[in-house]
Amino acid sequence: MSFEIEIKAHVYNRNFVIEKMNSIAEYLGHTEKKDTYYHIPKQLVEQTESKTSEEHITVRIRSQIEKNSISENYFTYKKKERQTSTDGVQFEVNVENETFIENPNAMEQFLFDIGGKIAYTKEKIVEHWTYKTQNEELHVELCTVPPLGDFLEIEVIKETQNPEEIAKIKQLEEQLLQECEIPLSQIEPKYYSQMLAGCSVKKVQDSGKSLL
């Protein structure tokens, strides 16, 4: 089982971040990712004696195009968990299960047949690097996520969930942000899904105002 320890932060100095990462890390290339998220309903779970709410499982199909224009497809089931460190910084420790799939259409049809529905889509335009320290290797992505803007994502994959090790990795990730002159106040605690949902609500509200 793999654990993904990740932080992401808003980027407002894109060119500086690219120059900095190119000087301290190994550039891996340009990637475009198109993600479709599906909600699969679970059984109703009792919340109180008289109240129930429907839960769902979220899975993702990703189509990924590398610089050589070869498209690859992945199916991902991720259990997300946010943690808050003693200094108040929020970061993610996720259980990630991912596999390559040759035909995403077959997987999508299966998801529909078991009651799944498309929840939302997301696009990422990515420049990515590997940043090595004495003991760790960090994967770094500078992501443009329309319409949200630019983000720097820093992650480390581990096979165990050791609290001391997580704390050390979080510290390394924060240090790398600061090297890129990104203050910790720009760390984004929300998931992209929450941010995109907020954009959709705002778009509807703005549309309503324009009719007044």
Write the layout of secondary structure elements.
Blueprint: E1 2-10, H1 14-24, E2 26-41, E3 45-46, E4 52-53, E5 56-66, E6 71-79, E7 82-84, E8 90-101, H2 104-113, E9 117-132, E10 137-145, E11 149-158, H3 163-179, H4 192-210
Antiparallel strand pairs: 1-8, 1-11, 2-5, 2-9, 3-4, 5-6, 6-8, 7-8, 9-10, 10-11
Poorly predicted residue ranges? 44-53
The share of residues in helices is: 25-40%
Largest sheet properties = 8 strands, antiparallel, barrel
Helix/strand/pairing category: alpha+beta
Count the DSSP helices: 4
Helix-strand topology string: EHEEEEEEEHEEEHH
Any idea what the radius of gyration is?
19 Å
Task: Report what the structure shows.
This protein is α+β, with helices and mostly antiparallel strands and 212 residues long. 27% of the residues lie in helices and 47% in strands. It contains 4 helices and 11 strands, in the order βαβββββββαβββαα. It has helices spanning 14-24, 104-113, 163-179, 192-210, and strands spanning 2-10, 26-41, 45-46, 52-53, 56-66, 71-79, 82-84, 90-101, 117-132, 137-145, 149-158. An 8-stranded antiparallel beta barrel has the order 1-8-6-5-2-9-10-11, surrounded by 4 helices. The protein has a two-stranded antiparallel sheet with strand order 3-4. A hairpin with a 3-residue loop joins β10 and β11. The chain is globular, with a radius of gyration of 19 Å. Mean pLDDT is 86; it is low at 44-53.
